[in-house]
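hey can u check if this looks right to u? its 207 residues, i copy pasted from the old doc so theres a chance i mangled smth
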Amino acid sequence: MENLAQITEFKSSPELVEKLYQHGISKEYEAGEILMNENSYIRSIPIVMKGSIKVIRTEEDGREILLYYIKAGESCIMSFLGGMHNETSKVKAEIEDDAEILFLPMDKVSLFIKEYPEWLDYIFRLYHKRFEELLDIVNAIAFKKVDERLLKLLHKKSELNNSKIILTTHEQLANELGTARVVVSRLLKQLEENGEVQLGRNKITLL
C-alpha cells in the first residue's frame, strides 16, 4: 500500500486523497523503533503507507501484551480517540516491520470528519475492526491455553510479513503474549517436536 487511493473508503474521493498528501508528513522507520510511548500527547495520527506497527499495552510491573497490528492502509484508532479528546496515549506503538508512515495533524483529522463522509467511514471501519480484535484478545486470555495463543500469534506474524519465516526472539514473543520467556521456549520446543515449527537462531519457520 504505497498509494492512499487504494484504500477502499478513499476510492470515491480523489479530493480527500489529495488533501491527505497535501497536509500529511511522511517519515520512514526501521523495525524496533518506538513510534509512540504510553502517556505521550497525540498531535497527529499515523496512516501506515507500508510496513506494519504493533500496538502494546504495558502494566505497572513492566509486563506487556500485544493488542493488535496496524497494517498498510490502516491507522491507529487509539490515536484518533486520544487526539480528539486531547488525552495522552494509553498504549505504546512499535514498528514491527520497516515502515513508511504518513502523519496527519489532529486539526485536519477533525476538519476532514466534517468535510468528507469517506474519512468518517474509514474511521468507523477501523474502530469496528480493532474492537473485534480486542474481543479476540479477551477471549484468548480467558479461555485459551498459552500454546494456542502462541501458535495463533506465529500465524498472524507470518501472514503480516507474507513469509513462513518469522524473525523474532523468545523474549519478544513472551512480551507480546504477556507471559514468561521460559514458558514460550518450552512451548516452542513442543511445537517443534510436533512438527509444526522449525526453530533457528532468532527465527522460527512455520511448517
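DSSP finds seven helices and eight strands in the chain.
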